Protein: GWxTD domain-containing protein
Amino acid sequence: MDRINFNPIKLIRPGLFCTMIFVIALEGTLGSLIAGNIKMDYLAFRSKRPPQAYVEVYFSVSNSMLQFNKGANDKYEANIEILLDAKGGPQDNIYSEKLEKKIVTSYYHATRDEEVNNIFKFPLWLMPGKYTTIITVHDKNNKHTYSVDLPMEVPDFWQDLSVSSIKISRIKGETTTFNPEPVFGFLNPRAEIYFETYNIQSDLLRTEVAILTLQDSLVRRIAQPVRVNRKNLSFSMPLSLGDLAMGTYKLRITQSNPDDGTRASNEKLVFILQSPVDLHFKDYQTAVEEIRYLLTEEQYEKMLRVPIEQQQQVLLDFWKKKDPTPDTEENEAMNEYYVRLYEANRFFSNSSVPGWKTDFGFIYLLFGRPDEILRYYRRDRFEERHVWRYKKLNLSFTFINWYNYNMYTLLDKKNIAARYVPNY
Structure:
């Protein structure tokens, strides 16, 4: 098939991408923390086997959740077994697949790096319907097991005008990479989207790409007519997300036939992380409040009194002094801190308190993800304890929940804060 190019959307050939340690996975708040290192997504397209759909289940496993042992040639090796179980569909069938993988690295620091993700894929051919997919990762080196589940809805792509799943990839330089977690923003502002359209009954198609809030308020829209000469077509286009405020958005693709008004759409959630010190996206008092654990009382009060015209520069200067590699564009210390703040809000927030202000969030901001989490119960009365261990720092912290309200209190917080936080 000839390639048809036009800006900004590009039509391309249809195709298919052709003890108690860690026993708490997927259980409550801390389960989210552990399972947060496994990201899942799925993409559904029309297959060559009517009426089935071709489904790719993607997931990534962070190095930081695996045990690496030193093997041959002084390399570090992790050995994992991955099981997929998909249940559902018209006959409530069960589909099972298994992978065995060895992950090898030459560098010890990479074995503990939560930013190093290993992406895997399971291809499935499924009938239209609703499914629940469970991924189980078994670490053969330390015998730990982690599980995460994903609801899937597989459309019928064989009847009416329809749109496939939306594949969103990151563009960095000349490289385009797909990651199961669609997070973009100041670190990854450029994206490429890919989708397919089936059962086109006209030679003219109106293609619309819209970005909306979760409440369906329109943020941005690109729409243009497309001349077509096929019943099934694939589309790709670049998309800039760098100027969106931080938050979660819907990316919605809508295809419509101008002749008879038939429409089809699909959508996907996109998460935007913007520069945490850019005052276009955040008010100054909030920005200062978020770094109060890094400030003395005097520094905190002084920053709050800064004139408006100097506020942006004060924030930039604060983080510039903490940049471990000032000759590079990236400030690793700042990025690490705000990734922790984002994750603390994601894991520990409740109806009244943002996650970073909870006791869990307090320790998480200062030290990051724990190496181990232990959980204990008392039988004679309700009391639940979580112990976070940081092996390399030789530190542990204990949290207690006395009242079954899912509110955990850090033991000895005053002394811990006095030791590690300038503000105390």
Notes: The chain has three domains: 1-15+160-274, 36-155, 284-420. Helices lie at 28-35, 108-111, 284-290, 297-304, 308-320, 332-348, 359-367, 413-420. The mean pLDDT is 83. The CA atoms of residues 27 and 35 lie 9 Å apart.
